Here is the input.
Amino acid sequence: MTVRVRFAPSPTGPLHIGGARSALFNWLFARKNGGTFIVRIEDTDLERSSRESERNILDSLKWLGLNWDEGIEIGGNCGPYRQTERLSMYCDYANKLIEEGFAYYCYCTEKELEEERKEQLKKGQMPKYSGRCRYLSEEDINEMKKSGRKPVVRFKVPDEGIICVNDIVRGKVEFECEGIGDFIIMKSDGIPTYNFAVVVDDHLMGITHVIRAEEHLSNTPRQILIYDALKWEVPVFAHISLILGPDRSKMSKRHGATSIEQYRQKGYLPEALVNFLALLGWSPGKEEEIFSTDELKQLFSLERVSKSPAVFDIEKLNWLNGYYIRNSDIDYITELCLPYLKKAGYVSDKATAGEIEKARKVVEATREYLSYLSEITEHAAMFYEDIELNEKAKEILSGEQVKQVLNTLKEKVSELGHLDEETAKKLLKDLTKTLGFGGKKVFMPVRVALTGQKSGPELYQIIDILGKDCLIKRLDRALEIV
Ligand code: GLU
Here is the structure.
């Protein structure tokens, strides 16, 4: 069997962490099995759907690297891939179900349904549609039509019986027909409901595995009934667990950023997010936590997706992201840091080669302190802005040897021709040799005079980045107060 899976977002908001994880699991499953990954837009909720959300979702998927083989924007043999462009197909299958006695027109008004619900509740029954319109006579129907009522189409759910969902993640899950009630498959405006459209599309698109969020498990028996009525093969289901916040309640805005776009803006790397999302509910069966996308493609399997909810741990994401920031190619990380440095005014919009070279050195010197890229500006500030010598700095500069240290360094800097990391290292070595004090007595005041801080990047990096003029300026400034 050739695997065909899909991600079918409703474009009612930006791509969320949960949606991205569903997309990723589908994508990994397709890649692992040499299958096809399809992206389809489920926009039948006309009021809440927007092209703007669709754009955001597709851009976020692309940014994460989750490319699709068939679907929206790129087409394929099973298009169109936006549900509102497939309305006639749903209509045809709804008619077929009506003709074959699996579905019927229902003319009940909202008001009548509401009364029915109230009545059932009063009797202590679980509210569900009574099936009143199942048995309308020809005459009744004509009467309804004449009165101008617009019907919906309902699926006739068997009065009894059990529907079994065979789920790869959750095992066998059984649902009683009795609790379901005849559900709507087509609304009165000719728009299908989710449960109907999803079945028609999954069938027509040849979907073999439906991998989606746990919240859709309770919809699955309805979908299976439709598959059976149309004599279509039921796909394999895999419902993946909820994502919880650290307090173990469902992940939501109050736990922090929820959309992929927000993480992108803050400076998380796509490869770190993919690594993190993969481990939200799936485990490779070994201790390691760092997996490249290529490794994930090799290792992923639905059998190792956990039934229990996954907890979103931002500390872990920060740690992973920091790992990728430290270990990725320096030019790549610099490129990604440039927008933040530009926004802070440290690099001009049309960055010159010199500015980029300096930025690269700044990134090299500071990236070990970053959990996400937007933090670069606070660490880069000392290379672009005047530094402040606060009380603590002044205290360090008040040491009796400091004047001599700074003056000697200033002399050596003035004598320098070319300055780079190597000459900076040599300069520092020379300095301690000339002074004859221990390293600490030399390096701490130099660091404080040059950066205003007691810790930070390597001194030779700082010296190289600041350059001769700035070094002399900062040394002069510190010398004024020693
Ligand atoms: N449009 C549904 C959603 O966004 C997709 C559900 C499914 O994958 O079947 O939740």
